[in-house]
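Hey, can you fold this one?
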Amino acid sequence: MSISIVRTVAELRRTEAAWRSEGLKVAVVPTMGTLHEGHLSLVRAALERADRVIVTLFVNPKQFNSAADLAAYPRTEHEDATKLAPLGAHILYVPDGAEMYPDGFATTVSVGGVSEGLCGAFRPGHFDGVATVVAKLFLQTGADLAFFGEKDFQQLHVVRRLARDLDIPIDIVACPTVREEDSLAMSSRNVRLSPSERQVAPKLAEILFEAAARIAGRAPVDATLDEARAAIAAAGFARIEYLELRAEED
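Sure. Predicted structure:
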């Protein structure tokens, strides 16, 4: 079993138009590749809700703050296609940079409010890059449903606001974070952790879950967050960018 690989917008739209003529519901799962079980869980969820599923694979240069980080990002198209084939996904859409951002491309999609603070404060321009490529993928695929993981929670809210504000007729479906056996959230970037970093990384979830449970039990918020910050530092994390308590929609 294999998956059909599409590399151009024109070919993608021809296929999507044929599906539409049959009255089929289409879902998209946007990714940057190096697929893991978290991505595959999104694909399975999409297959349960839609007749046809498009998985996109595009390492988006506009959401990287560092050229070195972009260059180091893993690219594993063949392995990704091999993982997707037995699931039954219908298309792996793999545009190159020129297809996504042709010469003269001059548009940036910026989502205010929800993209500010948290990760946005430490990665200037990142969410503009995310919003721009996601808007293009929504329009290129014409999908009815889009599946995103809750791991990147701020990104999820940026995407929801984008679709709502631009009247893009697509339902955003959030799926639970998938974790390793030691509670580390699955991420394509985990392969870049050194052995010592990989050993320390799961402690973050342990500390955050404990702090959340204490706050849910009415422990003082500020004191609990201060203790969590101290525990994160003591666990061996080199730097804490932020640790805040937010309402789900805030």
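The radius of gyration is 19 Å. Let me know if you want another pass with a different chain boundary.
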